[in-house]
Amino acid sequence: MIVLGIETSCDETAAALVTHDKRILSNIVSSQDIEHKPFGGVVPEIAARAHLVHIETILHKALREANISLDQIDGIAVAGGPGLIGGVIVGVMIAKGLAMAKNVPFVPVNHLEGHALTARLTNDVPFPYLLLLVSGGHCQFLIVEDVGVYTYLGGTLDDAIGECLDKTARLLGYGYPGGPLIERLALQGDPNAFSLPQPLKGKEGCSFSFSGLKTAARKVILDQTDPSKTFQADFCASLQKTIGDILVDRCRNALKMALEKKPTITNLVVGGGVAANQYFRARLDNCVNERAMGLVTPPVNLCTDNGAMIAWAGMERLQRGLIGSLDFAPRPRWPLEELKRENAQ
Ligand code: KG4
Ligand code: ZN
Asked: What CATH number should be reported for the domain whose range is 127-297?
């Protein structure tokens, strides 16, 4: 079986073809970094228009690279939310049109489920597992029991890590996305140069809060009279270390909570754009080693938004008969835990 996956929920226009035996035939991602750079963040209206301009070319490229024609496709999966609604509408309408024209199943996929299941495509991870989903808009721990069956353990009460990194990079005078840039600058810096707050560290549960850290980072940057390269590197290294400390603290609690609920869990999977960060991966690896568990992180290009993750989630759904209907309405908000109820209907 071959599924086409389309992703347009944020600032990447992406399409991919994936087979039931986990081969990625093509995975084309067109980033809108240049369009959004002057604004220091993603502008929803600009994103939607850019998706509309690029989607057709990206689809053609994906088909060409895979050497597949639309007639050979068994299903069309698309990120149906959560995300910036203008972009989601572009992807969903294209997917509906293609599914109708080719008379194949239309599978709307929750974007977060795409991130959640990627490790099954790349690393064959068995259910159940603990998931840390860290992206531009999300930061949460969930138990992944099966496709569509997620138990929320805790998450951010305000900002996500990606948001904190993107806003900080912007204050330092850099464009979007900030995460990769902060990771690069941090390599040259002293992680102990600045002492920053670690909200909720040491508290019970596995909630996060990053708005205080974001504000503290802002204050240090704005108070700096000489924003030299050394300052920037030291500051980025310190910010990254602070977030790493918070992640480890919260991860210890999340592992305990998850194992109490599901003792058969043996892996922590980290997904979403922030999971591309090598420093965070190393810190989390130490954390799971304390419990003799495994850390699974998909390759960097499959952590950030892409079409393969949507195609694969669509494949898993298709294999279980969980297909959608053409009256599906794109969803700006769509918590993963709601999927359990929807599947049961
Ligand atoms: O999953 P994603 O591509 O889009 C969303 O669904 O949000 O995540 C984007 C986020 C951005 O905040 C970006 O700065 C962050 O992931 N990011 C990183 C890295 N690469 C992307 N954060 C830290 N280190 C990275 N290497
Ligand atoms: Zn994402």
From this structure: 3.30.420.40
